[in-house]
Design brief:
Elements: E1 2-4, H1 6-13, H2 19-26, E2 31-34, H3 35-46, H4 48-51, H5 56-68, E3 71-72, H6 76-91, H7 98-109, E4 113-116, H8 119-122, E5 129-132
C-alpha cells in the first residue's frame, strides 16, 4: 500500500506528474492520501498570499483529486505517535513541518509507503518507508 504526500497531489494538479505514473508504478496497490494532506491542500488554496495566484481550475482539480483516493485519518494512536516523533525531532534539533509529522505517523501505523519528493523532511522520521519520484 502507498500513500501520496501533498507534494505528489500538487504535482498532479499542476500537471507535473500524471495519473499514468500511478498506474505504471502502483497498479497492484491501494493508494491513499492522509487527512493532513487535505488540510495542507485546502490551506494553500485559501491563504491570502496565494489567493491571487489560484486559478478556478486548481480549486476544482484539487477537489476532484481529493475525491479519488481513500483517506487515512489521524486517530488517537496516530496522534500519540506524532507527538512522540515531534518531541524526538525537536530534542534532536531536527524540525520539520508538523503536517509532515502527522502524515509520517499515519503512514507508519498503517504500514504505508509514502510517495513524496520531499525526502529531506520525511527521512528524519525513523522507520518510515519512502519512495521518491
Amino acid at each position: 500500500m502507498v500513500c501520496l504526500d501533498t507534494t505528489f497531489i500538487i504535482d498532479l494538479i499542476n500537471g507535473r506528474v500524471s495519473m499514468d505514473y500511478l498506474g505504471e508504478n502502483f497498479s497492484k496497490e491501494e493508494i491513499f492520501i492522509t487527512s493532513p494532506t487535505i488540510v495542507e491542500l485546502i490551506r494553500g488554496l485559501n491563504l491570502k498570499q496565494n489567493i491571487k495566484n489560484i486559478k478556478p481550475r486548481e480549486k476544482e482539480e484539487t477537489e476532484r483529486i481529493i475525491s479519488l483516493f481513500p483517506v487515512l485519518e489521524l486517530g488517537k494512536e496516530e496522534a500519540i505517535l506524532a507527538g512522540e516523533i515531534d518531541a524526538r525531532l525537536s530534542n534532536e534539533g531536527k524540525i520539520i513541518d508538523f503536517e509532515d509529522i502527522l502524515t509520517g505517523a499515519i503512514c507508519l501505523l498503517n504500514n504505508e509507503t509514502l510517495v513524496t519528493r520531499n525526502e529531506k523532511h520525511f527521512e528524519k522520521i525513523s522507520g518510515l518507508k519512502i519512495i521518491s519520484y
